[in-house]
C-alpha cells in the first residue's frame, strides 16, 4: 500500500511539473521534455522488462522463420496470446549446393541475413511446377547485402517439383516438401513474418540491456535530428557509412549540414520499431521502423532501415540506411 502511494505521489509530482511547464512555456517545451525522456536508458529498461526479446525487439512481426543451413532446417516461431514467441514447427529443408554466404549471382549459395517475405507465388500466378505448389519471394538482396557488394536475386522459400525429381540441394533458395509449404502458408501472414538465415543456429534471447541502450541511442539520434544538433547527429554515423543510394559519409555530412542550417521545426515519429541481431555477428544489428517526418519544406511517410554496428564502447555507428 505504501509503495502504491509513493508511485502515485511521484506520478502526481511529474504531472504537476508538466502542467507548470505547459502553463509557463507552452506545449513546445513539453514536447521537448518528452523527446528528451525517450533518450533515457532507464525508460527503455523499464519498458522492456516484461517484453519478449527472444529474437530482439519486435513490434511488427508475429512470426519468425529461422533457417539453420548447417542442419538444413527451417523453424517457425509464432507469438502466442501472451505475445511470447513459441516454437511451432520444424521443417526439413534443402539449401544451396555450396556452403558459405551468398556473394554473387549463380554461386549456388543461400544468403545469410534478415529478409522480409515480399509476396506469394502460386499456380494462379503461373508458378513453374519445378517450385511446387507455391513459393515465397524474399527481399534478398537487402541493404546490408548491397552495402557489402553482394548481388543476385530470386531467393525464395518454395516447394518441390510436382512432375520431376530434383537434387538434394538448391541454387540458393530454401526448399521444403509440398505438404510443408502448404502447411506453412496456412500458418503465417507474410506481411507479419520475418526470415532469419544463418550458417548455424540463429541467435536467441537477445540482451535487454543492449536493446535498451540501442533504443535510447536511436531516440538520441532522433532528438538531435529534431532539434538541429548536427554534431551529435553525425556522431552516430560510421566513417565507413554509405547510404543506400551510394552517398558516402563526407557527401552525406555536407548534405545534412546544409539541411540543418535551415533551422526548420520538424515532426519525427517512429512506429513499428524492430531491432534484430544480424546473423553471424554479435555487434551488428538491423533496425527498421515506420518514419513519419514533416518539416516546412519536406514530408515523408514510409519504411526506414538502419544497419548499425556497436563500437567498443557500445555506441551506435550507422553503416548504411535507406
Q: How would you sum up this structure, described in words?
A:
The chain has 8 helices and 13 strands. It is of the alpha+beta class and 322 residues long. The strands form 2 sheets. Strands 4-3-2-9-5-6-7-8 form an 8-stranded mixed β-sheet, covered by helices on one side. A 5-stranded antiparallel β-sheet has the order 1-10-11-12-13. Strand 3 and strand 4 (85-92) form a beta hairpin.
Give descriptors for this structure:
8 helices; elongated; 2 domains; L,D-transpeptidase catalytic domain-like; Nuclear Transport Factor 2, Chain: A; 28% strand; 322 residues
Task: Quickly describe the structure.
With 322 residues, the chain is of the alpha+beta class.
Q: How many domains make up the 3D coordinates?
A: 2
Q: Write the element-wise H/E pattern from the N-terminal end onward.
A: HHHEEEEEEHEEHEHHHEEEE
Judging from the principal axes of the Cα atoms, what is the shape? elongated
CATH architecture of the largest domain: Beta Barrel
Topology readout:
Layout: H1 2-25, H2 27-37, H3 41-48, E1 57-58, E2 63-68, E3 73-79, E4 85-92, E5 113-122, E6 134-138, H4 143-147, E7 156-158, E8 174-175, H5 178-187, E9 193-198, H6 208-226, H7 230-235, H8 249-260, E10 267-277, E11 284-294, E12 299-310, E13 316-321
Parallel strand pairs: 2-9, 7-8
Antiparallel strand pairs: 1-10, 2-3, 3-4, 5-6, 5-9, 6-7, 10-11, 11-12, 12-13
Helix pairs in contact: 1-2, 3-6
Amino acid at each position: 500500500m505504501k509503495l502504491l502511494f509513493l508511485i502515485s505521489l511521484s506520478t502526481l509530482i511529474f504531472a504537476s511539473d508538466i502542467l507548470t511547464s505547459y502553463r509557463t512555456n507552452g506545449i513546445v517545451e513539453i514536447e521537448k521534455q518528452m523527446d528528451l525522456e525517450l533518450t533515457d536508458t532507464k525508460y527503455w529498461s523499464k519498458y522492456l522488462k516484461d517484453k519478449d526479446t527472444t529474437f530482439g525487439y519486435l513490434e511488427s512481426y508475429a512470426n519468425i522463420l529461422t533457417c539453420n543451413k548447417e542442419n538444413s532446417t527451417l523453424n517457425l516461431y509464432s507469438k502466442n496470446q501472451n505475445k511470447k514467441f513459441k516454437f511451432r514447427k520444424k521443417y526439413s529443408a534443402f539449401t544451396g549446393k555450396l556452403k558459405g554466404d551468398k556473394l554473387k549471382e549463380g554461386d549456388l549459395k543461400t544468403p545469410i541475413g534478415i529478409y522480409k517475405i515480399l509476396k506469394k507465388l502460386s499456380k494462379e500466378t503461373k508458378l513453374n511446377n519445378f517450385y511446387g505448389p507455391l513459393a515465397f519471394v524474399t527481399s534478398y538482396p537487402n541493404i546490408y547485402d548491397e552495402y557489402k557488394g553482394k548481388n543476385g536475386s530470386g531467393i525464395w522459400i518454395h516447394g518441390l517439383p510436382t512432375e520431376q525429381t530434383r537434387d538434394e540441394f538448391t541454387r540458393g533458395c530454401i526448399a521444403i516438401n509440398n505438404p510443408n509449404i502448404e502447411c506453412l502458408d496456412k500458418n503465417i501472414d507474410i506481411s507479419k513474418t520475418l526470415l532469419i538465415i544463418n550458417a548455424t543456429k540463429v541467435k536467441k534471447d537477445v540482451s535487454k540491456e543492449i536493446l535498451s541502450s540501442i533504443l535510447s541511442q536511436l531516440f538520441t539520434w532522433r532528438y538531435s535530428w529534431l532539434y538541429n544538433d548536427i554534431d551529435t547527429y553525425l556522431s552516430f554515423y560510421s566513417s565507413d557509412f554509405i547510404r543506400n543510394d551510394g552517398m558516402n559519409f563526407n557527401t552525406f555530412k555536407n548534405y545534412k549540414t546544409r539541411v540543418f542550417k535551415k533551422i526548420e521545426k520538424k515532426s519525427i515519429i517512429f512506429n513499428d520499431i524492430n531491432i534484430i541481431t544480424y546473423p553471424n555477428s554479435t555487434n551488428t544489428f538491423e533496425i527498421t521502423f515506420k518514419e513519419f517526418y514533416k518539416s516546412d519544406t519536406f514530408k515523408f511517410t514510409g519504411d526506414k532501415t538502419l544497419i548499425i554496428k556497436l563500437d567498443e564502447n557500445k555506441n551506435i555507428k550507422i553503416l548504411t540506411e535507406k
